[in-house]
User: Fold this.
Amino acid sequence: MYEFRYHRPETLEDAAKLFSECGDPLFLAGGQTTLPVMKQRLASPSDLIDLGRIPELRGISLSGDTLTIGAMTCHEDVARSADAKSAIPALAGLAGDIGDPAVRSRGTLGGSIANNDPAADYTAALVALGASVHTPSRVIAAEDFFTGMFETALEEGEMIVKVAFPAPRSAAYVKFPNPASRYATVGVFVAGTREGVRVAVTGAGPCVFRAGDIEAALEGDFSADALRGVSVSPDGLNSDLHASAEYRANLIGVMTRRAVARAS
Amino acid sequence: MEKYGIGQPVRRKEDARFITGAGTFVDDITRENLAHAFVLRSPYAHADIGRIDTSEAMAMPGVLAIITGADWIAEGFAPMPTKSAVQTKIDGSKLNQPPRHPLAIGRARYVGEPVAFIVAETRAQARDAGEAVEVDYEEREAVTDPAKAIAPGAPRIWDDIEGNFCLDFELGDRQATDKAFEDAGHVVTLELRNQRVTAVPIEPRGAIAEYDSATGRYKLHNATQNVHANRAAFAGVLNISPDELHHIAPDVGGGFGAKNSGYPEPPLLLHAAKKLGRPVKWINDRNESFQSDTHGRAQDSKVELALDEDGKFLALRTATIGDIGAYCWTIGPFTPTAGSARTQGGPYYFPAMYYTSRAVFTNTMPLDPYRGAGRPEASFQIERVVELAARKLGIDPVELRAKNLMPADSLPRKTPMGLDVDSGDFPKVFGRTLEMSDRAGYAQRVEASRERGLRRGFAIAPYLECTGGSPKEFAGVKFAKDGTLTLSVGSQSTGMGHETSMPQILAATLGLDIAKISYVQADTQATPIGGGHGGSRNLEVGGSAVVTAANEIIGKAKQIAAHLLNSSAEDMSFADGAFADVKTDQSVSIEDVIAASLEQARLPGDMEPGCLDTGAIFEREVISCPNGCHAAEVEVDPETGAVQVVGYWVVDDFGTIINPLLAEGQVMGGIAQGLGQALLEEIIYDPESGQLVTGSLMDYALPRADDLPAMEMEFFEDAPTAKNPLGVKGAGEAGCCGAPPAIVNAVLDALAGDGVTHIEMPLTPQKIWRAIAEAKT
Ligand SMILES: Cc1cc2nc3c(=O)[nH]c(=O)nc-3n(C[C@H](O)[C@H](O)[C@H](O)COP(=O)(O)OP(=O)(O)OC[C@H]3O[C@@H](n4cnc5c(N)ncnc54)[C@H](O)[C@@H]3O)c2cc1C
Assistant:
């Protein structure tokens, strides 16, 4: 780790101001990605701006059909939240299956989606549920938010304040974990929403994506049987030590069938 | 008072310290004026090193010294020779051994090889300076696969070593074996790999070196598992006498062989401490550990089994290529040669065997012992070929095994590999394991799995292994006036619980309160010799040394007791912590005798206070043979290839069990590492660039708690060995011998209906899925 300056602002305004004044700053949430990367000297921010003291970024609330989760909410809190469990049990379950207890108690929703790791779990939930990401100045639809590998629609210095999830009629997330890291080799989130069936796939490609063919097959018949004729192409999927593109294509099919079976 | 006997489940005395974070590991130790070191490692697998420009780095804040290979050679330090017990090739000539210095000299030969050593006021400054050292590398073609390394035209790793060849080896009767193959009814051949893995102890390696200019002595606190042997190795490098180096291992967080070696960093630290006149600390991080901790296994073998028409084993022939990395390291050439030869054939009766192997250099981190060092490899080889034979011959694998186990009445027997199997009852242990595994309910479990879309498989894997490591051990006992005593032993615990088991032996033999005994280990000033940790040797030689010392103490104490009772030593009996006169029935407690031993007035004239203090050495003549049987049931998800081990049964014959809690812990840990080898772990180097692909825990898959099954364990204690006074056979590595074949064969059993007959370890989901897909086409 190289030397850096540490700040802990208490308001969104102060955080934004600090960001604009520092040379090469980074926001710090749970630090579960940022700190290991700094320790390995792969990142060397001049300043870390800790978002942990800003009240607007905290908390989980359910209002009508909308579950709202503050960016600084850690995975463990989402997993245990009565509101999350009642409105979107699949989301609470997803959060409870991220990493290990230490990671879940530090890692946050905001940090996870800002980082947009291609193998992260939350990304699939946001896209499948049609969630919206709130920043101090605008609201971004999840599908527009995740723009590429480790890339998002956030502007330089723009903070995620919270994420609003419309509760689906039914939903399920099934993940095939990487044997070493336990991130998603492939994770599939299926949701029956007001706009129809939405299926989002994480881990398989450079960035979370919706599986259009699968959604179409499920539209009329939300059952594992409806997927029988659907084949998944390995084109454009990731290939690495633990999983080739072909294997990932197979896993998309298997995880989707299992998610549908669980959701229906 | 806590009195414990042999065989009782005494809870670990050291755990409170470890669990509450109160242990003292190297990184917990600090010194005034401490400087910190960073090792600059080669980013290339194979590269000539030109100019190393340290000028910019030297000028950076806090930098105290930078040592390069050229600086090191200029000091006149000696290379570190291998201590492999096998030193010659089949033709009798000496093994090919390149010189090993702590820093690469002129050429780097594996990713992570130390190239320069930087000392600064802080660790971060040392690392910063490391980044500013400019090294001119000229990259060379690298070879990381052992078969490719010995193929014609392979890049030469050492200019004067042709064919990257270290040595070859053979054992057994080649002619008799070849003849048996010619006459055999069936021959089954299997090529397989025991893949390269690494131990990943929770505490990375690290050390603090100090030099006292007044006395000219060095002190080294080191996360090692072998203080005496490595003291000699480091002293040899620095051209000093071993007494000039005080080598201590404080609490050590796991070794498994990876802390066995004479590593490069300690001599560098010792030299730097002297040069700077300051203590210097170095701690490896996790990523550096993957690159620079020794690796294990890495053997490619062709295993051939000859059977008669009825399935009786006639002969076994194994030919192995052992990858030893870029150097011979500490005992690198031993593992794939004699280390893997001795237990060939496992617990089966073989009239003839022949083992041959070659140790080969590659552009990779060198190999050294890893839990079992050759025996797990041998166990995997025999069990895989037996399983395949059963399938090919259409015989039930359980039956084929039962039929070929060495019968109890064939023992003692010297196997064709020269292993002295003196005791045990392999068929009984095998039978008991089968019984535990509830074969009767198996069909129903298969059906239940099938209903959930899963394939179920079962396999049983008897194993026979042997102990190893240094044959001699010392135990010393010192009594204090306050009634406490100190036991010092030259073997070493890196977490196994010697602080409990060794005092337990002493307390049981002397009839003393275990709480009164404090334990000292891993300190070259506490014991004159010490074999450290390795080869499942602690109870066998260390425990036996404790018993030897205790018996000497009882002998001397009888003279004191006789004096106190106005009797003669010959008339003294000793039982339950008391000496009694067999004629008068008068008695005196051992506590009282110990108290008397510290007061001249209560001693016979020819004895002096402190006369009960005792140091004893035990030397084993013949290694002992732990054995046992594992059985595993697995569920395989054919859609994803995922495996879950759902049932696990073990019966071990470790001879006498001193403490069942500790013995079970050893078995569980061994099974966890064996499961890792079977299903998860593999060190992979890129075949083109020689880069380490699995260089972090994000890519190197270690088993976690939920990967492990509940394990049912029993011990078979009816056949203690007569090779040592405790009757123990060693427990530390057995789990690693039984688990890989039990689990791999169970997975292959589950996939038998799919037509899959072999998958190389680790059996990852992707490989299993692919094997099923390929078997279909
Ligand atoms: C061992 C381990 C296992 C893990 N396993 C999983 C897993 O199985 N599945 C999974 O999905 N994830 C996993 N993670 C990731 C983890 O859950 C976190 O979600 C992730 O590390 C980032 O969250 P964080 O709060 O720690 O963010 P940080 O590391 O603090 O920040 C990450 C990035 O987001 C930016 N950022 C943070 N908050 C905001 C904000 N409010 N607005 C704008 N930018 C922001 C930071 O500047 C930084 O660039 C794992 C991590 C570890 C260390």
